[in-house]
Structure formats: structure tokens, C-alpha cells
Amino acid sequence: MITALLIQLVHCSANLPEALRQAPNVNPILEVSIDANYPTKCHEAVTEACCLFWSRVLQRFTSNKTQDASELKTMMENLVMDLLTTLNLPEYPASAPILEVLCVLLLQNAGLKSKDISARSMAIDLLGTIAARLKHDAVLCRKENFWIVQELISGDNVDHSYPKDACSVCLDSRIGKPLFVCQGCQRLFHAECMGVREHEVPTRGWHCQFCLCRKQLLVLQSYCNSQCKENGKKNHSQSEKSSEATDPITKVEIVQQMLLNYLQDAGMADDVHLFTCWFYLCLWYKDDPNSQLKFFYYLARVKSKAIVRDSGVVSSLLTRNSVKKITLALGQNNSFSRGFDKILHMLLASLRENSPVIRAKALRAVSIIVEADPEVLCDKLVQTAVEGRFCDSAISVREAALELVGRHIASHPDVGLQYFEKVAERIKDTGVSVRKRAIKIIREMCTSNANFSEFTSACIEIISRVSDEESSIQDLVCKTFYEFWFEEPTGSHTHLFGDGSSVPLEVSKKTEQIVEMLRRMPNHQFLVTIIKRNLALDFFSQSAKAVGINPVSLASVRRRCELMCKCLLERILQIQEMNNEEGEVHTLPYVLLLHAFCVVDPTLCAPASDPSQFVVTLQPYLKSQADNRVAAQLLESIIFVIDSVLPLLRKLPPSVVEELEQELKQMIVRHSFLTVVHACIRCLCSVSKVAGKGAAVVQYLIQMFFKRLDALGFDNKQQVGRSLFCLGLLIRYGNPLLSTSGSSNKNIDVARSLNLFKKYLHAEDFVIKARSLQALGYVLIARPECMLEKDVGKILEATLSSSTDVRLKMQALQNMYEYLLDAESQLGTDKASDNVATCSVDGGHRVPVAAGAGDTNICGGIVQLYWDSILGRCLDVNEQVRQSALKIVEVVLRQGLVHPITCVPYLIALETDPQEVNSKLAHHLLMNMNEKYPAFFESRLGDGLQMSFIFIQSMSASSPENSNPKFQSKLPSNMKGKSDSGSFAYARLGVSRIYKLIRGNRVSRNKFMSSVVRKFDTPSWNSSVIPFLMYCTEILALLPFTLPDEPLYLIYAINRVIQVRAGTLEANMKAFLHFLQGDGQKILHGNGIIQQEQFTQAISNHTVPVDVNGTVQEESAAQPLSNNTESMYSNLQSMTFGDSCGISEDILQRIQADCVAAIALQLLMKLKRHLKIVYSLNDARCQAFSPNEPLKQGEVLSKQNIPFNINETHTNLPATYQEVLQRYQEFKIALKEDTVDYSIYTANIKRKRPPPRRGGKSGRMDRQI
């Protein structure tokens, strides 16, 4: 009702001339005394009325309270929706100007440029809704097939050739439908194609609407010109202008006249239609550059029904639906529709707003516009803006931006191709939901377009997340590749890959896709994971797993994998038959994929029909004489496949066995790539086992290398290293054969090799040392009991020590890692959850008996023997050493070989590792441990923080930058001697991640903060204690608090320490100063407090009492240093400890220990002051806090961005009486400021006059800010 009244009001504000309204005949129309600018002024009056209405409404919105503003916003939204409903309806032309004025105001200070965020939010919502409707109407008009609309869109200069025996609109020539011939243009029409009623079409002398309206306008034009000439004497100037208005009739004018005729024909008795027609003419008059030359022509069009006889016949034939289509098409030419680009650009600009609320609103507004026309996404400005939101700081905005693109991938493949690169970047996003959405979008790009040009790149991006830390993303990746490659397609696929092939063409295409992806990947590790999980189908939802995986699906995946392996074998043969010079390069990815399938399940390459097929087919490729990296990689993979399949075969043809042995022996002796030699030795041992020949070949090779080493001595280090390498591998893989051979030399060979390796470990050449250590590791894998021997233990301890060369440490760790993996594979321990040792949850440091200790598994005992050395290497200065040691920790925890609590401090320290790989793995292990053993985790957090400080110190000491004095001088004073700024940044991030792990549990986070604060309570006196306490202070200041309870508890814990320690420390320091003054007999006892009665009394008088919240009482805090102390300072300012009455070293250490404790308390007080300022916590709130009170729901924590600075703290220990006095004064001042620091240090932030207080001048001021 309100909307109808508003539209009617705006219609009337166009000021229809009275002469037009009351004219009973035609002639007075041309005699009206109005200016040619009158329609323009009428349009301005309409705009003014709309502007007045909306200005008042928007002004009330910004001035009202929240509830009233919400109600007014709802009313405005309803009003806009009503106006959009009437938009482009023939009876309501005012809807467009009303909405246009609203958009203009919303684009200015009343909307997007307003300081009120609620006004900006509402403006974005309304503009988005309006722009979406404009785009929707534009799309409808573009797709409209109605012939009049098509004539209008085609323009005036397009000349169509129409068929002579068919409808000019639908081109249908069927006899069943009657065709009507237009007498004007001679075109044929169906009645329904013209949008008219068939029974109303006359049978003779019929004209189409276009011809009739053109004829009508020509008559009006001629009539106006003739009337103007007759009345030229009365209105000479207007007659001249009108006489020039002989322009040709345009299609736009013809369609406009159709609409006017319809309105005149459908007009009521009260002449409401005259206001509507006049309103339309004012709008068109404004947009016509030659309108003033055709003024009377425009006036005559209002009364065309009265001027031109039978003009109503034209409109009476048009249905209302046809007129609505005409109105929609005409509406695309008005200024309101042309303003869409301006609205869109302003909404895109809002995407760069600082407020995340505004950005989210703008993104939703752009989304509904894109819903109306997805092709908007192809616009360069839109693409730039949306891609910019892919990198937004808010996860929700990034996800919404991806969702905006993802909804239209299937229907508009070109959009997907245009956005692919930026969407692919979001696969590595920090937000889990963003990564998931990016993967789903890329998957849809590939599935919706069978010929997607970036398919291979898409696969590479998706497979990179198969090792994601989020398990749901791992499942999503595996499911994606299941749909790509391993899912059985619907329908039958009888087309085969080639002549004589049993592989369907569809499987062959999928195989080629995998090979193409592998061709562009550095290795096949990710693909191995994909194949393994698809064969198990363990990535389905929990509900599907609960029901059980369908055995048919499992069998289907296995069959497809077998077919892929067959296809790979056929392709390898085809490439070989081509005799290409680069055949090895083309063959390699096929062999690598076959290698990946074999890693997961060798039975895939041992078909039941012919199990030895792959071995027999691939064996000739071992004869290759090429000696380059590609050929070596090819040989290594082929040998691996053969070695994997051999144990599955019952019997091999003797000729194949002989050829294999000869070729493998030759490569062991001659091949230059040791990776190939490694594979050959392993495969040779498998061949000997399958052929049942025993250890003869292995023993022969062992003796051969023994002899070669005896002959070489220490000369020719390359040959010596190769021989040591081969000897170690032969014993490792040949150990089962040697054990069952019954030869008496088996133990002699092992002992002899151990002595030989020890001998070469003392070689001067480092290459020989490293190779000997590697060979020793191979032997120890075969005979792990040797690691328990004393001499071998000394070797391993020495190689794992911090002073050893990095390469030896790396090799020793690699030996241990391979041993653990070998033991794990032998025991079949694939799941970590099945192998975790059962441990008693306590906070002790004792390592319990590991799993397997006391039985045949000696792995646990060996690990515990070297566990401290391995943990020490976790904090090595070399990043590769740390990474290798951390991998060992991962395997050990997975197998449950040690107590998990021993790893916690080291893993916490590694959270601060600058290398992202190490910090991520450490965090992953800590997450698992926190889930299983939260008590272990919490009890060692404080130790872990101290370990992280030690780690950062060692990293800083080894950094070449820190040896540069110029670099040191640039560091802040609180960072020197502790870490550089980069290391501290990593430390802050690492500790923040740890805190986030436990933040959800109030008890856990309080324990963490208490354990750190306790470090300040009774600090142990050593050279690094003060830098460590400064490190802890900065870490506590930068914790990512989200609830008010967190900083309040930290302040509470700080106040407890100050309450207990402050008074005693102040008294001790003061008593020591009195002692140095030389008054009376001074006897220090125990903790340094003077036993003499008067001094005991003095101490008690000067002890600073502290209340529960750590507030120093006013009387003692206000008391200045005594005159006695001042004279003492003047008389003894140059006295050193060596000169002061023969003070012992023990007493000196005690006073320095007190100074360290004073510095610790000063750091805590500075931290407390900083927390209260940053989180706007006043004294009353801190004093009222209790850790036992329940959390208040909905309470928000506000935070100011203020840097924490502890540079002013003196950290050096006193060496003279003057320095002791200075420390004492600093401590006294800190205690005094602790009572008034809030009023002093917040003065620069928010100035407010404090309320008057009764009582003393000093003391803590309870103020609100």
C-alpha cells in the first residue's frame, strides 16, 4: 500500500500539463503555452521528490536507536523489494527513477561513504539486491526471443532477409498453423509469434505492429509539421524548430509507441493513464538529444489515439505478457539500467575495506549479482577483486570468495579456466575449510569439462595435500582420485587399448593421465599413498565404514589396478619397439608408475594367469648399457619390480635365473650409480632364495670384496668406498641366506666385516669414514645384537655426539632410522595406535621398560641405549641433522619404544625451529601426544620452554651473523645474548601454537602459565638465568589470549609471586647495605639476614608488606630512603666488595642471588603493567578475579596494539657497593610504581582525570578506562 502510494505520488510530481488533461479535441494540444524545456523540468521535479523522500528516510535511519533503526531497515528492504517487483511493469514507470535516486544516495555519504558501519552494511545489501535485479533483467532481455524485442535489439541499420513461405519469427512453414501476411512489409507471421490473439487478427488488409506503429508515427509527425506551419504566425520560433523535425522513425520510437498505445487503450475513466504516458514521455524526452526539435511531436504522442483514427487496433492485439517484454526491453536503455556498472565498481571497491564485516557483506552482494549472470566473473575488474579476496586475512571471507567461483564452474567452464591458477594457490591455505573448498572446486573443474586443459596441473595440486595435517582433507584427496581413476564407470566399455590387448580403452586413458601427472612430479611418494588408500577404500565417511566397505567395490578397484599394470607393461613394450633415441626418457614414467603399484601391492604385477609375466618381460631391460641418471633410475625401478614379484613366484625358468644372476652380478661390480648397485644386491639375494641356490653367490661376492679391500688398503678411496658399501649390503640382505646355509664362516664374515669397518673408520679420508659408517649400519641392521656390544656402542655414541662432523652425524642417524623401519616392517607394525607402550601417567623423568624388552625384540633396548644422544641431535645446529633425528623420534613414538614424556621438552623446543618441516612435524607429534597423554604434555611444558630457550641460544651462537659486531649492535638490548629477532619470532609462533593446543582447557592453560611464572619465583643462579627470564617474559606478553580470564589469571599468578617474595628481598638487600655501613658487629647468617638485634628490628621495620593482589601498602611504599642510607651512599659510593671489611665470596654470591631475584620480580611487574594496559584491565577487576569463579559467557576481550619493551631493565650483576645500592633503589622504585603504575603509564594512551581519593597520596588507583 505504501509502495503504491509512493509510486502514484511520484507519477503526479511529473506535473502533467492541464491543457493535455482537459483537452477535448486535438487542436489545443499544439496551442498549449509551455516551453520546450518543460518535460525536462518535470523530470527534475520527479528526481527532487524522490531525493526528498529517500533523504528523510536515510536520515531517520542514521539518527534512530538500534531497535528503531532495525525496524526502519526492514521497512526499507520491503519497500525496495516492492519497487523491484513493479520494475519494468508498463503501469509503473516511476519505480526506476525512485530506485535510481536511492542508489545515487547510497553510493554517496548516506551509504557507502558513511562513517556509520551499519549504514554502510545496509547500503551494500540494498545495492547488491538492486544490481542483481538489473543484471537479471539484462540477461532476460538478452535471451528473449520475442520478435519485437529482437527487432529492437538488432537496431535500425540491420537489414534482415525473411523467408517467403514461413513465419518470419519462428521460421516454421507447417501448414497446420495459419500464417498472416503484413500488407506493409509483406512478411508472414503466426499469431502466437507476434504475441497477439489469433481470433482478433483481421483476415484482410492486416498490418503487423511494427508497420502500424511506424505508419501511426509518420501520421503524427506529418500532422505536427502541418499544424505548426498553419500556426506559424502565432508561435514562429516553435514552428521553425518543429518544421525541422523530419528525422526518420527509429525502431525505439516504434516500440515506445506500442507501449503508449497499450496504455491509452487500457486507460481508466479517471485518466490515470495520462499521468503514466506523460511520465514515460518525460523519461524519453530527457534521453533524446533532439527532443527539443520534436517537442510538439512528443506532445501529440500522448493523444495519438485521438489524432490517428483506429490507432487502438494496434495495441488491442498485444497481450499483456508481450507488453511486459516490450517494457523490459525499453528499460535497458534508461539511465537506471546504465548505472549498473557504477554500482558494481563501488561494491568491488568495498571488498577492499578494512572492516571484515563490510568485506563479507560486499562479497555476498557480488555473489547475488553473479548468481544472476555468472559471466560477470569473466570481467577483469571482477576477477581482480574476487581473487584479491582469495588472500583475505579472514578465513570466512576467503572461503566465501572461493564459494562464489565454485558455484558456477559446472555451468561456465571458461570461468573455471580463468580462475584456476588462483584457486590452486588456495590449496595451500592455512584455513582447513578454504583448502577443502579449493580442492572441491578444482575437482569440479576437471569433472565438468572432459577436455579441461589444466587437468594434469590440477591433479598435481590436489595430490600435494594427500599428506595434509588434517585427516578430512587427506580423505577428500583420496576420494577425488578415486572418482578420477579408480571408480568403475557406468556403462560397458568394450573398446580395447590396441590389437591383442586385454585393457579397455577407458582404463588406458586413465593410465595415461596418471603417467602424465607423474612425468611432472619429483617422485612417486604421494602416488603410492593414493594407490594404497584406494585399494583399501578407507577414505569413505564414518557411516559408510560402520556399514562396511562393499567387497564388490574393493574387487573393482583391484581389478582396475591390475589392468593399469598390464597397460603399463604394454606401453613399455611399445615404446621399446619404436627404437627411439630417447626411449629411456619416455619409458621412465611408465616404469615409475609400475614401481608405485609394486610398492603398495606386488601381487598386482603377478597375474594369476601368468605370475612370471612381468619378470620375464622386464628382465631384458637389465642389459641396457646406458650410464646416466635417467637410465639409472629406470634400472632401479625395474629391479625393484622384479625383486618385489620374485617372492610370489613358485618357480622361475632356469635360463631366466641364470641371466638374472649374471646381469645383476655384472652391475654390482661395474655400475657407477650406487642406488642401482643397492637394488641389484637386494634382488640378487631374492633370486638366490627363490632359485634355492643358497648363499653361494652371496659368499662369493663377500669374499671377492674382502680381497679387493685387502689389496686396495686405503688407496683409491672411490673403489674402497664402493667395496665397503657392497660388503655391508651383501651382509644385510644376505643374512637370511647365510644363517640357513649351515656354513661355519657366517659368523666369521660378520665379525671380520665389523673389524674391517672399525679399521676404515680411523681412516684420514672423510669419504672412506662415511662409507664405512654406512656399511657398519647395514651390518647392524642384519645383526642388531651387535649394537649392544661395548665397542660398537662407543662408535655410535661418538658419531652421535655434538662435536662430530655433520656428515657422520647424518649417516649415524640414517643408520638408526633404517634399522627402525626394517624392524617395523618385520614386525608388521603399520599402525601407531597398536604399538604404543603402556605407561603410567606421572610427571617423572624415569624411562620405563619399552615394548619388547625382555623378549626377542631387542629394538626397544637398543633405542633406549642411544635415546639421549638421539634427542640431543634433535636440537643440533644443523637443520638436516635435526630433521633426521626428528624422523627417528616419530618412528620411536609410533612403535612405543620409549616413554613419551621424555620427548615433550625437545618437541616443544622444535616447535620454534626456523625450518617449517621440523616445526610442523614436532607440532603434529605434540598434538597426538596431547590427545593420548595430556598429563605428560602439561607436566613438561615449563621444561620445554627452557629447552626452547637453550635451542635458540645455540642457534644464535652458530649463526654467522651474530659473529658480526655490527649486527650485534643493531639488535635490541633485550635480544642480545639470547637470540636474534628472527629466532625470537619463530619462538613466539611456536609457543603460540603450543598454547593454542591447550587453550580449550582452562585447567591446562592455567597450569602452563603457572609453570612459567614459577620460573621467576626462585630462579637458579647461573649465567643464562636473566636472559631466560627475559625470554619467558616476552613469551608471556605475546600469548594469543582470546578470553578475559586468561590475562587475569596470569596477573593473578604474578601477584602471588610478588606477594611472597617482594618483602623478603627488599629487606635482605637493605640489611646488606646496613651491614656494609660498618655499624656494630655484623654477622650474616643463613639467607644473609643480619642477626644483630637492632638490624633484625630494622629489617622488620623496612620489610614491605604486600596484600593478596601484590599491592604494596602505602605507608612503607611512601617511605623514602633514610638519611642514614643517603649518607652511606655518599661515604661509600666508591667502595668495592674487596675493600668492605673482608666480605667472603659466599656472602657476595648471596647478595648477587638476591639481585637476580629482584630482577626477576621487576620483569614480572613490567609484564603485569603491560597486560593491564593492553587488555584494559583496571585494578578493581584484577583484585576481584578468582581462578575458581565460573567463566562469564559472551564476555569479549579487547586488545590494544602496544609493543612490549623491557630494554630499561638492568640485567648485569652488581660488582661494587654502588651497583648494589643502585639495584636496591631500582627495586624500591619498581615496588613503588607497582602501586601507581596504572595511572602513570596509561596517561599517554587515554587521558582522564583520576577521581579524588581519601587517605595517602600514594597507593594503587582504582580507575576505569
UniProtKB/TrEMBL annotation:
Gene3D superfamilies noted in UniProt: Leucine-rich Repeat Variant, Zinc/RING finger domain, C3HC4 (zinc finger)
InterPro entries: ARM-like, ARM-type_fold, Cohesin_HEAT, Nipped-B_C, Scc2/Nipped-B, Zinc_finger_PHD-type_CS, Znf_FYVE_PHD, Znf_PHD
Superkingdom in the source lineage: Eukaryota
Family: Belongs to the SCC2/Nipped-B family.
Annotated GO biological process: chromatin looping; establishment of mitotic sister chromatid cohesion; establishment of protein localization to chromatin; regulation of gene expression; replication-born double-strand break repair via sister chromatid exchange
Cellular location(s): Nucleus
GO cellular component terms attached to this protein's record: Scc2-Scc4 cohesin loading complex
One GO MF term: chromatin binding
Annotated organism of origin: Nyssa sinensis
Record lineage: Eukaryota, Viridiplantae, Streptophyta, Embryophyta, Tracheophyta
Residue stretches making up the PHD-type domain: 164-214
Protein name: Sister chromatid cohesion protein
UniProt region (Disordered), positions on chain: 1245-1265
Annotated Basic residues bias: 1245-1257
